[in-house]
Amino acid sequence: MHCDRVWRDARLATMREDLSGLGVIEDGMVAAQGDRILYAGPASEAPALNPIESIPCAGRWITPGLIDCHTHLIHAGDRAHEFELRLNGASYEEIARAGGGIISTVSATRAASEDELVADALPRLDALIAEGVTTIEIKSGYGLSREHELKQLNAARRLSEKRRINVSPTLLAAHALPPEFAGDADGYIDEICANIIPAAVGVADAVDAFCENIAFTSAQTERVFRAARGCGLPVKLHAEQLSNQNGAALAARYGALSADHLEYLDAAGIAAMKRAGMVAVMLPGAFYFLRDTHLPPIAALRDAGVPMALATDYNPGTSPLTSLLLALNMGATLFRLTPEECVLGVTRHAAQALGRSADIGTLSAGKRCDLAIWDIERPAELVYRMGFNPLHARVWGGQ
User: Fold this and answer.
1) DSSP 8-state code for residue 44
2) Residues 229, 196: contact at Cβ < 8 Å?
């Protein structure tokens, strides 16, 4: 059988659901034809292959390319001064209510051109790519108007023209109340539903919202969800980060892909997520950076069988983290996720959180040949180490 290339003499962590744990295969092989996996499994069971190129891996581990399923990578400016304020005792809510927080980034982002946003994002993206990330979700939410939200989404899409990366843009217009709608949150929701969401069709892959006591109510969030579903766009939600607004249960009613953060998630929300087949996206970078102490209910999510993904939540205000490997360690040390849960959280479960399970997230025939090849002795090393990158090679689309 003809194929373009084969990676041989490897150990595979396939992440396949039909195999236990990480789907480990010793003495494994991956074969690619074009940008698709032709075969991934034991070398002894492989069909007769005639590759153009055969790449020895010398016993290295191969995982699917890593997936960062929750980021805010496109923005201008930074918020280092707010970091200083928090260290001096100000809370996240106090900073936001005083005109800082998200709105300060909105001002900088509105003033930047699309080209400037792309240029600013590339170094952040390069840091993630260097750690084996092959797919990234990027939210808008720092434009808060039709013009500037679309500018962010278009900048996100342009990153895939600059780098070998799959980009999944998400519309997060319901992130904060823009200054021109001060005191009129319902009016801004009207604008989102009537003008911003329809304009994002074909540019955004999904619609997100921030359902929180400093952002939008459950009723306002539900209006966003109805508009998104009416335009054929799936939804997800920033839920239960600072308080329990019953956002996860609301998201479940609309068949959301995921609910993210979830520090204040309750049993009813967990049950609703399980029934809806949602993913719980854990964001330990924000938990760490905000010095939070209210842990998400990891054990209850585990017991309920809700899949858990992990992501950097890269953003300038509460998680300026451009290392998915460090997020793995944080997930284990702060949230007590197991190494297996952490690695699944940036592969199979992260793909599910993006609605892309059919295409990425496992080493399976027919899926994209996005690979990360590691100089490690066991997959747990990806979680165990801090400040060390054991990536040997990154393969995107079979190359």
Assistant:
1) G
2) no
Q: How far is CA 387 from CA 59, 280, 323, in A?
A: 23, 26, 9
- The CA-CA-CA angle for residues 375, 381, 387, to 5°, reads 85
CA atoms of 67 and 232, how far apart (whole Å): 24
Decide: 249 and 221 in contact? Cβ < 8 Å. Answer: no
Q: Which residue shows structure tokens 């690619």?
A: 32
- Show pLDDT as tens, one digit a residue, over the chain (399 residues): 899 999 999 999 999 999 999 999 999 999 999 999 999 999 999 999 999 999 999 999 999 999 999 999 999 999 988 888 878 888 867 877 776 778 889 999 999 999 999 999 999 999 999 999 999 999 999 999 999 999 999 999 999 999 999 999 999 999 999 999 999 999 999 999 999 999 999 999 999 999 999 999 999 999 999 999 999 999 999 999 999 999 999 999 999 999 999 999 999 999 999 999 999 999 999 999 988 999 999 999 999 999 999 999 999 999 999 999 999 999 999 999 999 999 999 999 999 999 999 999 999 999 999 999 999 999 999 999 999 999 999 999 999
Between the alpha carbon of residue 14 and those of residues 10, 303, 341, 374, the distances in Å are 12, 24, 14, 13
Rounded Cα gap, residues 152 and 172, in angstroms: 10
Phi, psi of 146 (to 5 degrees): -55, -50
**CA-closest candidate to residue 70, choices 394, 367, 318, 387:** 318
Pairwise CA distance, residues 99 & 266, whole Å: 31
Say if residues 302 and 86 touch (Cβ distance below 8 Å).
no
Burial class (CB in 10 A: 0-12, 13-18, 19+), 308: buried
Structure tokens at 84: 């200083």
